[in-house]
Structure formats: C-alpha cells, structure tokens
Write a structure and sequence with these properties.
12% of the residues lie in helices and 32% in strands. The chain is mainly beta. It has a 5-stranded mixed β-sheet, with helices on one face.
Amino acid sequence: MNVTVNGDPVVVAPGTTVADVVARLCDSDRGVAVAVDREVVPRSCWAAATLPDGARVEVVTAAAGG
C-alpha cells in the first residue's frame, strides 16, 4: 500500500497501524502526535488504527527549548 508520511511517499504492508508508523520513525512515542488525513488520532487508538491505502499521515514531535 502507498501512504504519505510527513510529505514523503512510503510503501507499507496492508494492516499497518499508526503505532507501526510511529515505531518506525521515533525512538519513543513520548511527545508525539499523529494525524491521519487531517484527523488527530488519540494515542489510545494508535494500535487499532489501520492505515488505508493513500492515507496522508503527519507525525509531529514536541521539542523543548527556550
């Protein structure tokens, strides 16, 4: 399946979840937020939220600074 993650095309297996994408991109899920097709996906739903073909996924992380 083809999806877009943070603007880049990515091929994923059918059944890939939001949790799978976060694990691929981030060392930790702390401070991470995800939207699929412009809808925020609550962290409690990541493991069950499978990505449809053509999904646009945005994964953002919080950064501390001053």
